[in-house]
Amino acid sequence: MLVGHSGAGKTTLVEQLLAATGTIQRPGRVEDGNTVSDFDEVEVRQQRSVNLSVAPLVHNGIKINLLDTPGYADFVGDLRAGLRAADAALFVVSASDGVDGLTQMLWEECSQVGMPRAVVITKIDHQRADFDEVLATCQDIFGDGVAPLYLPVITNGHVNGLIGLLTQKFYNYATGERTEKDPGAEYEAQIEEYRGTLIEGIIQESEDESLMERYLEGEPIDTKVLIDDLEKAVARGSFYPVLCSGLGVGAQELLELITQGFPSPLEHPMPEITDLSGKPVKGITCDPDGPLVAEVVKTTSDPYVGRISLVRVFSGTLRPDMTVHVSGHGLADRGHEDHDVDERIGTLTCPLGKQQRGAAKGMAGDIVAVAKLSRAETGDTLSEVERPLLMTSWSMPDPLLPVAIRARSKADEDKLSQALGRLVAEDPTLRLENNAETRQLVLWCMGEAHTDVLLDRLAKRHGVEVERIDLRVPLRETFGGKCQAMGRNVKQTGGHGQYAICHLEVEPLPSGGGFEFVDKIVGGVVPRQFIPSVEKGVRAQMERGVVAGYPMVDVRVTLYDGKAHSVDSSDMAFQIAGQLALKEAAAKVPTLLLEPVDELSVLVADDYVGSVMSDLSSRRGRVLGTEPVGTGRTLVKAEVPELEITRYAIDLRSMSHGTGTFTRTFLRYEPLPPNLATKVTAAD
């Protein structure tokens, strides 16, 4: 899996590796829109990756599935899918731009799951490239386990080749082809310095405790022994070799590292597996002859083929025409209902960008595409019908940017529901909300770029045009004081009339008090059968509101007097009287608008704490406190009105240069300031 910030050169590196192995004739260019992995029309237009894509190649008889991941924070869902499907991560860092905060966050995320990692410094032939400085930055940020395997040889800004520190050979690319020779004497000191650090780092991770002693005594260590120990150190996730890459340079060395120094699928820890009741299942390994356990890591909709499921096979073998059990659990809050169905596998393919090449089977450790699994969604488990299993779903961040949309025409409205259903099935970072209070359709997205891609896909892929509208935050109403009011519903129309009079006393309750209805009728002035009718009418009017159309809360209503007629009184008559009394009360005492207040927990680098706290205060927020989290990060807690944070996902990313994250939890309702309440009432 290739990981790194947007523009670091991941897609270009994939092209170089594909060309170096003869998988494609020549590498494409992102600027020309002809790369293998950026084939989506959105990616071509925006010239950046927004999807997880697979690019398989073969080197020395070993199949390698390259996973190109987006480098923009909005598309972290595809990054998490890549983490689940990959056996190792290759961090791509630009020699001209260095390490940004997002790359550091991704490194920490890989560290948490124990993902084996290596670093490749790209663009070493760029005019602003500084390999030594970027290497030092990587060592400072990523830790002591970072050490170079190769050093670039640059003359007058031109990369002539690479020096292998383990082999002590100079790989010359001056003629366009790699030739091997001994490095000159001018590189001896540099090689000795870096090689000593590299070998010590590898030996420290070796299971042979005598190696260090032999090395310190000056005994030469066989290169094959060092490569074997390098692979073990990388597999443990404790040693991170560094390579470098430029135009026509470094692809061969990187392929050698991937095939010889990266762990195989057999060494990758198996995710937690349970049966459908939740009981853990042990003993399953990456064995082609074992029980089938596979996972849908990405779902796409092709206008010609239909739904395509990208599947990582963890155990067993997936074959065409076999029937599998499809299980999806634990994502109901994202619009994915739990489901267990049996489906037949159709054609298997091995995707190379937008090309789908036929595959006879998908063995344990491989990644294949399955067409037309009608119920399979991203994150679902495929297993044997006779032994259905479930893989624990990987964690997904909560989408925190709400975007309200509506169809542009009646024809679009008819197609919108089905199109949104397909987007939700594809993308577990998208949450769809049909808000009954505001009567708005809301997409909860990861950010502005995520939103743009979703709306683009609705229009271009599904033919549905929508427009963004102002988001309405669901407010509440309550009484600002205590008063008495009468509801009079007396009508005579010549026949059966209506007669109901009720006297109510209303008063506000503390925040969170809800609704109380108190019956203080004495002497039967309101017959017992009509007292619930008054309460029903009051509740109905509270749901509709009395000022701006928002539900009323935190109110105590006391029925203390009234009148009835032996013939004309009825259930409906007293319901209407209760509604009229509540409206009259609203005319006598101030009615307050209440806004929802959330508790925010904002995690940012220490450098941005001051800016974040100042910004929260400007949003009418109350900062509750801060606490350090790990090294160089601080958690800021605050209470902030929801009206002020509808676009906070975008603003925080801007303030923290893409490194800040936050969570939000509803706390309570509080009175809206009078100046804002006036604006809301006028708008409604």
TrEMBL record:
A Pfam family assignment: EFG_C
Keyword Thylakoid: no
One GO process term, biological-process aspect: ribosome disassembly
Molecular function per GO: GTP binding; GTPase activity; translation elongation factor activity
Signal sequence coordinates: none
Record domain Tr-type G: where: 1-266
PANTHER family on file: ELONGATION FACTOR G-LIKE PROTEIN (PTHR43261:SF6), TRANSLATION ELONGATION FACTOR G-RELATED (PTHR43261)
Protein known as: Elongation factor G-like protein
Species in which this protein is naturally found: Nonomuraea rubra
